[in-house]
Write a structure and sequence with these properties.
Blueprint: E1 6-7, E2 11-14, H1 21-26, H2 30-35, H3 44-60, E3 65-71, E4 79-87, E5 90-97, H4 106-122, E6 126-132, H5 136-144, E7 148-154, E8 160-167
Parallel strand pairs: 5-6
Antiparallel strand pairs: 1-2, 2-3, 3-4, 4-5, 6-8, 7-8
């Protein structure tokens, strides 16, 4: 494993590669399009561009730290998780789990690993999680991580985000490891 690969013994987070584009696109469903406020379902070229941008961010240590999620005993891509600095020692946490792997603890495990990385490597003290109204599974996940409701703000497409904040110094995020 390289310095950007994280594991808790059940899941592995590793930066996406160009070879992941087809599998990434295959994981998309209507919920992903809705909760990420995408204008339309992605095409292969969109997935390739997204992954290329994330690869470049890792290469230059830019603003996006995005990992693909896999089980330790499988090469199947389960989804992705990302932390992005917001300034003032804050990071934004976002995640997606593909339909066959939802409600199996994948998002929570991946989030814990990514938040631990954010605290240890990026100096983050607080995570911000923005969730569209109606996304009950993501709200449940945010609360299970120890995040607290902080208010509402407009979403990028004009809907409403519920905003949750999580202190990384006292959160569950310290329960994970990275290599």
């Amino acid at each position: 494993m390289n310095g950007h690969t994280l594991t808790d013994g059940v899941v592995i987070l590793a930066p996406l590669t160009a070879e992941d584009a087809t599998e990434w696109l295959a994981g998309q469903d209507e919920e992903q399009v809705r909760w990420f406020e995408l204008a339309r379902p992605a095409q292969l070229s969109d997935a390739q561009c997204f992954i290329s941008e994330r690869m470049e961010s890792w290469r230059t240590m830019g603003n996006h730290r995005h990992w693909g999620i896999q089980f330790v005993d499988s090469r199947t891509l389960l989804g992705g998780v990302e932390v992005r600095p917001l300034g003032d020692s804050e990071v934004n946490l976002s995640y997606v789990v593909f339909p066959p792997f939802r409600q199996r603890g994948v998002a929570r495990r991946a989030s814990l690993l990514a938040l631990s990385y954010a605290a240890d490597t990026m100096g983050a003290e607080t995570a911000v999680i923005r969730i569209l109204l109606g996304n009950e599974f993501s709200m449940k996940l945010a609360k299970s991580l120890g995040a607290t409701y902080a208010g509402e703000e407009p979403s990028y497409a004009g809907d409403t985000f519920k905003v949750f904040r999580l202190s990384l110094g006292t959160s569950c995020a310290s329960d994970s490891s990275h290599d």
